[in-house]
């Protein structure tokens, strides 16, 4: 028996299937024809404003799941506040400057920017960015995001760039702009500095070394010890930075020991790491002949192991006791922490 004719159901034009891929474009077209965004603003124009400043995406490719999550969450926030009685202007925008645009156009358009005049390359980047603004805008609209799509902001617009120059000028007038030095990450392929957020780290097997720095000047604090055979021991995985060494960094409050080995040499290292380091060095018999806090060694001088220069003993809180010797090789030209530490001690950078 066919039971469907025995069931009393309401008669409705509501479709049995959602069919969203085919129905949603029509819904979005009606919203645009009706001026939904403008109507939302008109309805709440006399109410308190709620403005969500749109952190812009780069216009260097089609939208992905990250864009979808970002834009739909923002749309939730804007619309919910409109429903709560706020005036909610929402101006979407795009970031059109910087390495992501240049990298994308070089890869996708196969441009050799090194052979192009700078104005020509900039014009190509601008055209490329505008193409993906339009593609991304279509994607965001398709997600149902409501905003002022007729007048978005672009960081490459001349009036936007003019405002940036004005803000920079005001910062300069207030003394916020200065000329200085700092180590930066450098991409040899792109020939530009890159931000910390752009760096990806991978585990890479490497050879580490322990290096002896002979004592040069103890500032008269270690009288009674044979300083001609006394060494600060550092550990590093970046052997190529050793020529740039200017300092050896110790934790000011950790305990450091003078350890005399059976070869007659005395090594200075953190007490917490002593046994591990001496075992790696192949010493079975050794004794601690003195111990001091890290700040005791501050401003002493050691000799560089293979260059005619000295290495200064300094203190910093970031020194840890989980690996190495507790005596940290410090080369200010190769790391931000190293640079800041040497700058704090007023050292000339090399």
Radius of gyration, taken over Cα atoms and rounded to an integer in Å? 32 Å
- Main sheet attributes: strand count, strand direction, barrel closure: 9 strands, mixed
In the CATH hierarchy, what is the class of the largest domain? Alpha Beta
Number of domains: 2
Tally of strands: 13
Q: Which word captures the global form? A: elongated
Structural class assignment:
alpha+beta
CATH superfamily of the largest domain: HUPs
Number of helical runs? 8
**What CATH architecture of the largest domain do you see?**
3-Layer(aba) Sandwich
Q: Give helix % range.
A: 25-40%
**Element order: H for helix, E for strand:** HHHEHHEHEEEEEEEHEEEEH
| Straight-line distance between termini | 93 Å
Mean pLDDT: 92
Largest sheet, spatial ordering of strands: 10-8-9-6-5-11-12-7-13
Q: What fraction of residues sit in β-strands?
A: 15-25%
| Low-pLDDT sequence parts | none
Look up the CATH topology of the largest domain. Rossmann fold
Structural description of this entry:
The chain is α+β, with helices and mostly antiparallel strands and 350 residues long. 31% of the residues lie in helices and 18% in strands. The protein is built from 8 helices and 13 strands. The strands form 3 sheets. A 9-stranded mixed β-sheet has the order 10-8-9-6-5-11-12-7-13, covered by helices on one side. A two-stranded parallel ribbon has the order 1-2. 21% of the residues are buried. The model has no long low-confidence stretch (mean pLDDT 92).
